[in-house]
Amino acid sequence: MATEKSGPNKTPRVSEAQRREMMREHLHRLTPKLEAMGSRQTEEARGPAMMEHTSANLTLEAMLAAGMHLGHSASLWNRMNLPFIFGERDGIHIINLEHTMAALRRAAAFVKNVAYNGGIVVFVGTRKEHRQLAVDAALHAEQYFVTGKWVPGTLTNPRPLLGKHFTYANDVWDVPEARDFAEHQAPPSAGASEKKGGGSTRYMQMLEQEKAKALARGDGLKMYKPDLIVALNPRESKTMLTEARLSFVPTVGIIDTNCDPRLVSYPIPCNDDSLRAVMIVAGVLARAARDGMDLRRGRLLAAVSQHNKEYIERESARSRRFPDDSASDDQ
């Protein structure tokens, strides 16, 4: 049986628990030195909070610390970003954070207005490092997100993607005034005969089936397009941005110095390679959407409360004027 030889220069084995205890003691000894330098140290790990910034309290110092000013190489720049570029340093373009601040506040105000009016906001982040940010922003704003590949035709050609369920929903529920027209109008098809009046019997049967299902469920088959799309990486989402432009859906996107700002409706000049920078932008927009929804709820609750108050006052006045009617109603 071989035995392990011990020597004077051999490091003794340390268990995982002992290693953690040694690291804790080392950090405990460093705490007074770090506090003397002006920082407050705690033993709890604290990562950067996503929703700690708003368009009102965001400062240039926080943006600078997040690296939002760092662009791409000067040889890769897009000439349309010239108004947003502050200068060049070591071959890298520097973004003017004052323009970033103004663009972010303008985009946040627009997102807040869309959410206040009951619009649908979709956060799109297809990069691996942006997926969780898109999910967190959408959950905080109580909106929707897309983290996978954008399916071409989602906005411009949804009929083949959704199948027969789209037919009745798009023709009837989207425009209730065109109900009679949609029920008697058939789309052109290769198999339809002109002698039968241009209508497709199969289409009419399918329309009747979908009509029965829709009437049974209420408006369960109602289809909605987003009112706003927030793209965290618009350079990799050109198909989605093209469909949004053709569908008249406004877009907000993070534009680096190598990206064309004309791709989106509200460009935000910022470093899209910094996870912290993208987190700040997504957090500000998510907070704006949440504030808009809170204001909308408050307005609706105030309207309901005012309506109930007026109803109670009318009933009280009626009972005072006609006490006999109120007594008969109680009986």
UniProtKB/TrEMBL annotation:
MF annotations from Gene Ontology: structural constituent of ribosome
GO biological process, one term: translation
Gene3D superfamilies in the cross-refs: Glucose-6-phosphate isomerase like protein, domain 1 (3.40.50.10490)
Pfam families (UniProt xref): Ribosomal_S2
Region annotation (Disordered) ranges: 1-20
Residues in coiled coil: none
GO cellular component: mitochondrial small ribosomal subunit
NCBIfam families xrefs: rpsB_bact
Family: Belongs to the universal ribosomal protein uS2 family.
Name of the protein in question: Ribosomal protein S2
